[in-house]
Specification:
Number of helices: 10
Number of strands: 10
Strand order of the largest sheet: 6-7-8-3-9-10
Structural class: alpha/beta
Order of helices and strands: HEEEHEEEHHHEHEHEEHHH
Length: 274
């Protein structure tokens, strides 16, 4: 049985506010070059944190190290509220900037889910349980109609929603999104951010999202971090946009546009769900 975002919200209830992913003195050195150093970061459940920085600042490297793809120094752990085992490695979901696929290969969305979730070769067929699980999670991101579509036939926006649904299966402690709207049209970008913001609330997720679309990201972020080898700015969207990091790196005009969008949003009437 599929569930909409609003139905999921009713079931799961409000944020617990007590879970946290912590990076302590986190660093990455590759081939003798320090890429990241002295990263100290706490990301709380129910919090959408946008990670900003110039090209080469180490944003993708940070994600790859957190995923265990690169060696790192320091510690990464998850503090689970009310658990006897308080310090554990977080369960991480990940949506890459892009997925290299053979557009001519007859691989469907269901095949992708089965390959990740099943314990048998995809060519042996899919169990009813795997199909039901895939359909359920695709429905959460309004992509259930794509279940039997070939991956090569999907638009950029459709593929990102599929990858988002897969990253939520099972629901992680921390969700990493690496420029997830790269190649998506403006209407799709706004839709994706709204969806991620809603998912954060519904699943009580800690989300770290890398973005170069600063004005749009600022409208949805609970917090913004400017990274350039280490964390240089950390605060609310308004605080970071008004600070020197964004203005010196991306220009005063862009910072002002982003601040104006924040003000426009704050002047809009709040929408309450029944």
């Amino acid at each position: 049985m599929t569930q909409t975002l609003q139905q999921q919200a009713t079931v799961l209830g409000p944020s617990c506010g007590g879970c946290c992913t912590r990076l302590v003195n986190f660093g990455v050195t590759l081939n003798g070059t320090v890429v990241l150093e002295a990263i100290n970061l706490h990301v709380h459940c129910g919090e959408l944190t946008v990670l900003l920085g110039p090209n080469g600042a180490g944003k993708t490297t940070l994600f790859r190290a957190m995923l265990g793809e690169l060696p790192y120094t320091g510690t990464l752990h998850f503090v689970h509220a009310g658990s006897e085992e308080r310090f554990i490695h977080p369960r991480i979901g990940y949506v890459p900037q892009k997925l290299d696929i053979d557009t001519l290969a007859p691989v469907t969305v269901l095949d992708l889910f089965a390959g990740a979730l099943a314990h048998r070769p995809v060519w042996l067929g899919h169990s009813a349980a795997i199909r039901a699980k895939a359909l359920d999670m695709l429905s959460v991101v309004n992509a259930h109609a794509l279940l039997d579509q070939r991956l090569g036939q999907l638009s950029c926006g459709q593929l990102q929603r599929v990858l988002l649904a897969l990253a939520l299966t099972p629901v992680p402690d921390l969700l990493l999104l690496d420029e997830p709207v790269s190649g998506v049209d403006p209407a799709g970008i706004d839709l994706f951010y709204r969806m991620v913001s809603e998912l954060r609330r519904i699943f009580d997720l800690s989300i770290l999202l890398v973005s170069h679309d600063i004005p749009t990201a600022a409208r949805f972020a609970d917090r913004m971090i400017f990274l350039n080898r280490t964390i240089l700015c950390d605060g609310s969207s308004r605080e970071v946009l008004a600070g020197p990091c964004i203005r010196q790196t991306f220009g005063i005009d862009l910072a002002n546009v982003a601040i104006q969008q924040l003000e426009n949003r704050s002047n809009q009437p709040a929408h309450h769900h029944p």
